[in-house]
Design goal:
Shape: globular
Strand order of the largest sheet: 3-4-5
Structural class: mainly alpha
Largest sheet: 3 strands, antiparallel
Strand content: 5-15%
Radius of gyration: 20 Å
Helix content: 40-55%
Length: about 450
């Protein structure tokens, strides 16, 4: 298999907001979506709805994060919750789709806006997002478990050809309308990690005594991630199960947008496997190594990092897997402020706090405190690579702003933009990251152990 071709394909799952604007999004809504909308999430049978279990963590949850962290304070908590549910309703209406031929399966239609080949419909990244979202929105949405279980069945129907407990990274419709895997039917680490974490949430939300043993399935998938998505010797997260440890080019590679530190801690709690502590320690080591040597003035992380022969970690060369910006803060790493800051909020782990604080102070200075001036890509020294503005870059900064009360005015401005920017003006990638970030920022991101 040509790994570079795979990488270029994977990037389409990640950078679907790239370069296109509101006009195309509106055109897609008007002309492309109707053939899917008749299969969308609103149509649920009595039989499907009847299987719903008791809800243990109904939205909203109003979690108390670490003392000293903040939330937007220019709206009431009830308003924050309502703003989240509004974006959820819009997200669900656009992207959560019932399988056209298998009534108890659902998928996240990440290619609604036709940013890749028109027959492509789903990817594991988006599938993980959907499983997180539906688990968190249970209680507000009475059909959340129906959707979640349908997403689970779709994941199980599309296993990776390398490790069947993981998910094949992309699906498409064939000439007969069946949904099948793309040719490179192997996994991507981010989708694997979110799906596994969502199963732990589902166990907490609904229990595991029903038709799906969420906890057992979570443990099975977590063990598979350790086997196939983690470097067995160096304990860094790899790019997917296709990147073997012995692969001299991609075995040493890791993607900072996969640095889901609280996921890693939840995996340790669920399995008792101490190797997850090593993965967590290595992940924090990489964050700080990049920050101290390559981005001390900005705190930014690149899209890809590689482990060098001397054991140190460095930005990958440009064009390493996807784009010329692989060594820069771009459409992958735009998610790192959300992923890394979330662990601080819920666990209090301070190992990346200096990096987060530097990044927060830098982005406020670079934009003059105006969220609409956040660019869609930077060099690690802060030079702008792409002046375009996208919610996928704005939303994660709202999560990172929560770590310090000095960011209160900045956080309020960021939240206002997330609320006011129409869903129709953005694509799947932006809209999904916005919604997940808003769940965190509103105080509704609970963990399997709280």
């Amino acid at each position: 298999m040509n790994k570079k071709i795979l990488g270029l394909s994977v990037s389409a799952c990640l950078i679907c907001s790239l370069a296109a604007g509101p006009a195309l999004a509106l055109e897609s809504d008007a002309g492309l979506a109707p053939s899917y909308q008749n299969e969308a999430a609103g149509s649920v049978s009595v039989e499907e709805s009847a299987i719903a279990a008791a809800i243990n963590k109904p939205f909203p949850q109003h979690i108390s994060y670490l003392s000293g962290t903040i939330k937007p304070n220019h709206f009431t908590q009830a308003q924050l919750d309502q703003q989240v549910t509004k974006k959820y309703d819009e997200w669900k209406a656009k992207y959560l789709i019932k399988h056209p031929k298998i009534s108890n399966q659902y998928y996240v239609y990440y290619n609604l806006e036709k940013i890749v080949e028109p027959e492509v419909v789903s990817c594991s990244e988006g599938h993980g997002y959907g499983m997180l979202i539906t688990a968190y929105m249970a209680g507000y949405d009475s059909k959340a478990q129906t959707y979640y279980d349908g997403l689970y069945r779709f994941y199980k129907a599309h296993p990776s050809s390398i490790n069947s407990a993981l998910m094949a990274w992309q699906q498409k419709k064939d000439s007969s309308g069946n949904i099948v895997d793309s040719n490179d039917d192997n996994s991507a680490t981010d989708g694997d990690m979110d799906i596994a974490y969502s199963l732990l949430l589902a166990d907490k939300q609904w229990g595991s005594s029903g038709s799906i043993n969420y906890k057992a399935e979570a443990v099975k998938m977590i063990n598979a991630i350790m086997k196939s998505d983690v470097h067995a010797k160096n304990f860094h997260l790899k790019l997917g199960d296709w990147a073997s440890d012995s692969d001299s080019e991609f075995g040493p590679g890791t993607r900072p947008s996969d640095f889901m530190l609280n996921h890693l801690k939840a995996y340790k709690a669920a399995t008792g496997d101490s190797k997850w502590d090593k993965v967590t320690d290595t992940t924090y080591k990489i964050i700080n190594a990049i920050f101290s040597k390559y981005s001390p003035k900005t705190g930014l992380l690149p899209d890809f990092v590689v482990r060098k022969s001397d054991g140190s970690y460095a930005p990958a060369p440009d064009g390493y897997l996807e784009e010329d910006t692989d060594d820069s803060y771009s459409w992958n790493s735009c998610r790192t402020p959300w992923r890394i800051a979330t662990d601080y909020l819920v666990s209090g782990d301070t190992r990346a706090l200096d990096q987060l604080r530097k990044m927060n102070s830098w982005i406020q200075s670079a934009t003059g405190g105006n969220p609409t001036k956040i660019a869609s890509g930077y060099e690690l020294d802060g030079k702008v690579n792409d002046k375009a503005h996208a919610i996928a870059f704005t939303a994660p900064f709202a999560v990172s702003a929560m770590v310090d009360s000095s960011n209160q005015q900045w956080l309020n401005k960021l939240w206002t933009e997330l609320v006011d920017s129409p869903t129709s003006d953005s694509y799947y990638f932006d809209n999904s990251i916005r919604l997940l970030s808003m769940i965190v920022v509103s105080g509704n991101w609970w963990t399997p152990d709280n």
